[in-house]
Design brief:
single chain; binds magnesium ion; binds threonylcarbamoyladenylate; 350 residues; 15 strands
């Protein structure tokens, strides 16, 4: 039986954290909020418990999970080496939505790292996540708390819809503040490489390090894939096909309008993932039956990131067959939003 425990996102009750921490210590699974998305946690040093994460998610054993820590001492319990050049990153982004891939210590079980010599580490900036890790007294291995291949959960309801009874405890602290997963940097080399754009903007990391950070995540050809999460279909919404337009705003809007009309005439249930600016222009030109979900202003990529995954799930819930979307042009978190949209896309138009 899953126990859902509500907690205040800023001041979680210590007795609730203690209860959930005890479940982790005994080898159980706890879903918990981070500032990015909800994670499905197990004691990182308990291989059986971590193996259960893979089973519950339907995740292939070849896809390693991130180890979540609550202190700098724990960083050194999982990473064998932390390069001196990474210190400014650690100072600024731990806690924060940044994951560093580092050489692992031998004590970290192979099931966590999928047998790799490296470990992905992050210190979440969320009082509930930090409190839980402290209460458990151990680093917590956690992927996003969704079924493998589905959109990451930004609310406890998403976790329950995907995993339900298979989890021991769900800590429900409401919606997560960032809404897209952490930025992953391969820190085994300098300059580091970006394995996945996310909550920590690439520009901010480059400014801190004073170097350009090459992006590996753009490569989707199988032989170049470094993190299995980069596979193009990884974030595909279930049941609805996503059609994405890549290119300038005016042709994108013309495409949305014409495609929505054609699909609607063909009897398909159509949804539009729209920026506020699009609706101001397209509003009246769309058939009334088109399901419209707002992503917020294109000019505010933080707001868009916060809503993106819930918006995709909303489309599924409305039984939409084809979702039409366009890429935002914005900097900062715009890169992560473009990445998630491309991975979720069944067809790309330009
Ligand atoms: O924001 C986040 O990062 C969320 C929250 C829960 O912390 N977690 C998350 O985990 O997104 P997951 O498992 O859904 O994605 C982790 C990604 C995967 O693509 C995995 O392949 C990659 O991290 N990864 C893990 N360990 C790695 C390693 N040693 N080397 C390269 N990539 C690694
Ligand atoms: Mg995931």
């Amino acid at each position: 039986m899953v126990r859902v425990l509500r907690v205040d996102p800023r001041h979680p009750a210590p007795e609730v954290l203690a209860q959930a921490g005890e479940v982790l210590r005994r080898g159980g699974l706890v879903a918990f909020p981070t500032e990015t998305v909800y994670g499905l946690g197990a004691d990182a040093f308990n291989p059986q418990a971590v193996a259960r994460i893979f089973q519950v998610k339907g995740r292939p054993a070849s896809d390693p999970v991130i180890v979540h820590i609550a202190s700098h001492a724990q960083l050194h319990r999982v990473a064998a080496e932390v390069p001196a050049w990474a210190e400014p990153l650690i100072e600024r982004w731990m806690p924060g939505p940044l994951t560093l891939v580092l050489p692992k210590r031998p004590e970290v079980p192979d099931v966590v790292t999928a047998g790799k010599p490296t470990v992905a580490v992050r210190m979440p900036a969320h009082p509930v996540a930090l409190g839980l890790i402290r209460a458990a007294g151990t680093p917590v291995a956690a992927p996003s708390a969704n079924r493998f291949g589905h959109t990451s959960p930004t609310r406890a309801e998403h976790v329950l819809a995907d995993l339900g009874e298979a989890v021991d405890v769900v800590l429900d602290a409401g919606p997560t503040p960032i809404g897209v997963e952490s930025t992953i940097l391969d820190a085994t080399r300098f300059p580091p490489r970006l394995l996945r754009p996310g909550g920590a903007p690439k520009e901010a990391l480059e400014a801190l390090l004073g170097v350009a950070i090459p992006v590996v995540a753009a490569a989707v050809r199988e032989e170049e894939v470094m993190a299995p999460g980069m596979l193009p279909r990884h974030y595909a919404p279930q049941g609805s096909a996503l059609w994405l337009f890549v290119g300038p705003v005016q042709p994108a809007r013309a495409w949305m309008q014409a495609t929505a009309r054609d699909l609607h005439r063909a009897g398909r249930r159509v949804g539009l993932l729209a920026f506020d600016e699009d609706l101001a222009v397209l509003g009246d030109a769309l058939p009334a039956e088109v399901a419209v979900v707002r992503l917020g202003p294109e000019a505010d990529p933080e707001a868009v990131a916060r809503r993106l995954f819930a918006a995709l799930r909303e489309m599924e819930a409305q039984g939409v067959e084809v979702i039409l979307a366009r890429e935002p042009q914005s900097p900062g978190l715009g890169l992560a939003v473009r990445d998630r949209l491309r991975r979720a896309a069944d067809r790309i138009f330009s």
